Amino acid sequence: MPGRVRWVERRILAPIVGLVVLGIAGAARAQDADSGDAPRAPAIHAFVSQGAVKTTGNEYLVDNSKRGSFAFSEAGINFTSQLTDKLRVGIQLFAYQLGSLGNYQEKADFYYLDYHLKDSFGIRAGRVKLAYGLYNDVSDIDAARAQVLLPTSIYPPNNRNNLLAVNGAEIYGYVSLRRAGALEYRVFGGTVSLVIPSQVGSPTPISNAQVPYLAGARLMWEAPVPGLRFGFSAVTLKLEENAVLPTPPALSAAAVLYADVFSVEYAAHDLLLAAEYAQQRVITTDNMPSLLPLSTIVSDGGYVLGAYHLTRWLEPAAYYSLYYTNVSDRSGREHMQHDLAGTIRFDLNNFWIVKLEAHFMHGTAIVADTTQATDPANWGLFLIKTTAYF
Amino acid sequence: MRAPRPHVVVLLALVGLCARSGSVAADPHGAFRLIVNPANPVSGLDRSFVAEAFLKKTTRWPNDELIRPVDLEADSPVRRRFSDEVLKRSVAAVKSYWQQLVFSGRGLPPPELDNEDQIVRFVLKNLGAIGYVSGSTDIEGAKVISVR
What is the ipTM of this complex? Predict the structure, then answer.
């Protein structure tokens, strides 16, 4: 199975990256020849961010968050070119560090060929952002929102390594319903590139892991009230992995994940209100049930969020997010995460923003991998982040 | 420790909404006219169509010509008025919308031109263009259309 995934990446995705680069280069030459055709000029956008993290009580996001850490950096640059009225190509290179994640390894955040046949039907192929909920596909775009961290109940920061984009294709469209508003849909499928975290010292290191398939869809209904939209997203994927045990045989495990989210957003004038509820079901199977019991675990969570542009340069925002790791056991701090967050975003100019954010946390579900049972249930998280972009 | 409650967030948002009332369209010089190429057969458009065109959700005129929206710079009072009345979003909110599309590979914003003379020239040059200018600008033969 991993060989098949690598074959797909080598035989299909690599040529697409090549075409994207060639397309942009070609468009650049076309731009030189016809500088008056502005809509077809290749566009370049970029951002650079630096943040700091400080927690009270638990280590979160970065290794030394209780002492305070600056291991919170991002940089990205993208090139987009409208080759014809219907064909667009683009690529975004991205590197980041968030504690032990990222480690400044540059990667293609996305790359695609986009054929927009008509408003109600288009297709993108390559590595495309994964449409899940209102904000998953923009969760790494600091300049596009008020918050530093999106609500962790639905958009955990550590998902950015694996679930930000899908290597495959999506079809999309926008269908006007006249007086009933409009429908926007995206349907996608492919695989994801897994990043296996460091396993130094692990007694059962993972020898390989892959996602043979991922499929999903998002449907948004734009209501006749300007700015009001409702959505439903669903994603399923299969994860297969093998782990080396001290004595043979190796452990082979598979997990099938189903996730769905209901969304509502109201964005009008300077006000943004949003709420989402998500549920995830993970069904695990393996060849050694005595060692790793077969299981079905359902987690759920949701949030309500508000943001408001008081002035062009000042935008306060707040959200309350709640997450349970297992709906059959909602007790115990390690199974829950309440997160009340407040943010102030300052737009110093059209290219530079600064954000201050504070979280009051109750529960340790989102830090369960790295904390001890003695860690406090109530803790604080403070972030400051600055981003320059164009 | 009691868990925080979601209605706190909603109340904060409502307080912000109330504080905002009365501040919309305070600039009397921000009035705008919507203009298209004189060869464009349309004479009037629904507000929702114009909004979808400027947000590039709708990309074709009824005659299948490509729609080419063009914006003034973010600081323009005319753009602020147009954004509030037609797009129903502030300029800052629209910029956030485009940031989302640009950095997720789903689209590019309309070109932003420095002044209204450039808007008029762009509209006259491109058959599918649509732009907005203030009431006092010489539109040099561009066609003014009404917004329903």
Answer: 0.84
